[in-house]
Amino acid sequence: MTRQNDEVDELFDVSNAFYLGNYQQCINEAAKISKPSLEKDIFLYRAYIAQRKYRVVLDEIKSNNDTPLLALRFLAEYLSVKTKRESIISAVQSYTEKNSSNAGDLNVVWIIVAATIYCNEGNYESALQILHGVFHLEFLSLQLQCLLSMNRVDLAKKVLQTMQEKDDDATLTQLSQAWLHIQIGGEKLQDAFFIFQDFCDKFSPSLLLLNGQAVCYIGQQKYDEAENILRECLNKDPSNYDTLINLLTLSQQKEKNNSLFNRYLSQLSDEHKDSQLIVSYGKKQAEFDRLVLQYGPSNNKSIADIAV
């Protein structure tokens, strides 16, 4: 076995834990590897970002870093410092455009970061554009997620077929298949559930996998089963975004009053005030208030005053 293959095998547990959402396990596995490895460090810092531990990344990756890790500093800064987002988007876009012809690992990391930022902005067209033409499994997985967000199941099926031809057994391929099954719905929900369950059995149940199962249950109208899984998720992390979103959805199906819905919405507003859902909700609320003022009664006097 070559030195390169040794390194790939050694990094499998690191990358696989990251893809499955077992971020602390990814960090722990990376710590076991004593020899320097840029790819190991990339997954390590991506795991810290996924845990929202942005300060670790910003403290350890300096602004003058000349490796692909600099892209991860930009991502951590983008997610943690709202006032810098526009300048960071511009800087990342400029860098990726200048290095678009570079097919090495350096450009791979920058493209993943750029696509992640575009997706966070809801700019799926730009994300697809930067991901186009490279048949790296993670690029294809991100393409599929973008297409599902745009409700282009037809194109997502083609991307999944490419992934299956490349490596049908890969973790990213299996997860992508599960996400596509969820979007299709119906009988495919059970197939998606089994994929998540298989990963839970082989490795360990992460919030990503458990929330995937909960979504399957909600789609099958198995609300009690979904609630049990989401309670387990809350025990693991009471402020997890996906868990709160799914509980918000579930509360609309199960509760006759809005008390739980309002509670989860308040928690989302507190913990994830810059998320797409909360920003969109705030805009709609402001628009509603504006329409009330515009089309509401112009006479501010009470009925009692008018009667006098």
| Uncertain residue ranges | 1-6
The shape, in one word, is globular
Topology pattern, helix = H, strand = E: HHHHHHHHHHHHHHHHHH
The proportion of residues forming helix, as a percent range, comes to over 70%
Oligomer: single chain
Largest sheet: none
Number of domains: 4
* Rg (C-alpha, Å): 22 Å
Average pLDDT number:
89
Strand content: under 5%
Helix/strand structural class: mainly alpha
Care to count the β-strands? 0
Q: Number of DSSP helices?
A: 18
Query: What is the terminal separation in angstroms?
Result: 96 Å
Q: How do you describe this structure in short?
A:
The protein is mostly helical and 308 residues long. It has helices at 3-19, 23-32, 38-50, 54-60, 69-80, 85-98, 105-120, 124-131, 137-149, 153-167, 171-184, 188-202, 207-219, 223-236, 241-254, 259-271, 276-295, 303-307.
Walk me through the structure.
It contains 18 helices and no strands. The chain has 308 residues and is mainly α. The chain folds into 4 domains: 10-90; 131-204; 205-270; 275-307. Helix 3 runs parallel beside helix 5 (69-80), helix 5 (69-80) packs antiparallel against helix 6 (85-98) and helix 9 (137-149) runs antiparallel to helix 10. Residues 1-6 have low confidence and may be disordered.
